[in-house]
Amino acid sequence: MMTQTHAAQAAHIEQQFGSRADAYVRSDVHAKGADLHRLVDVLEPYRGGVMLDLGCGGGHVSFTAAPLMQHVVACDLSPRMLEAAGAEAARRGLHHIETVSGTAEALPFADHHFDVVASRYSAHHWPDFEAGLRQAYRVLKPGGLAVFMDTAGFPDAAADTVLQSIELLRDPSHVRNRTLGEWVAGLERAGFLIEEARSDTLIMDFAAWLARMATPSVHEASIRALLMGVPQSIRVRLGVQDEAISSWAVPLVFLTAHRTA
């Protein structure tokens, strides 16, 4: 059931991302990555199954998984994201990718429907992180695989405060990047048996990161001022190596888990 808070967040996300849908389909950052290579590896035992791409965005998880899966459901709350991802799937001849509108907290699917649930760069937008994990568990078949890939938070409060602040200034629909420990605890509370939980880092072109979200210039100036005003130790933690802030190091998590049989 979608609450007023969830509905408001959904509208906010559509406002932020709907107009940028084509940019996310074309984004090299989203279309490539070591996490997508790892995804292919962990999907191999589930070849021929049915997969949910939860919070599909530009559809890159769906496109990556499609050669292995019999059927892929790309689910997102943004109609324009679904339209853009569906158009790209059709252009690639991936006609077994189906687009479905839905939110993480209230998935429109029956219990035990999917062999695999995968989600990438979506959970930091969920207004109710734990509810999203419980829904992923609900729609997964017993023994099924869940794969979560997302930007991450820092365990130390000072660095995490700066990280969450620049994320929010760049994208007002941002809710929170969770630490690896928070992910592990949340998945366990949802009932999952965790198989792998790893941290990683993605070096991101800073200007391209801002441009992809069409960040207003006043917010960009605030982000840059914040980063140059914090202690050097935090800039090092965030991978900021020069005053121009040409790039930064985005913390990531990659987790695989199973629904117990």
UniProtKB/TrEMBL annotation:
The keyword Methyltransferase applies. Coiled coil: none annotated. The keyword Methyltransferase applies. Keywords: Methyltransferase, Transferase. It comes from the Bacteria. GO terms for molecular function: S-adenosylmethionine-dependent methyltransferase activity. This is SAM-dependent methyltransferase. The lineage of its organism: Bacteria, Pseudomonadati, Pseudomonadota, Alphaproteobacteria, Acetobacterales.
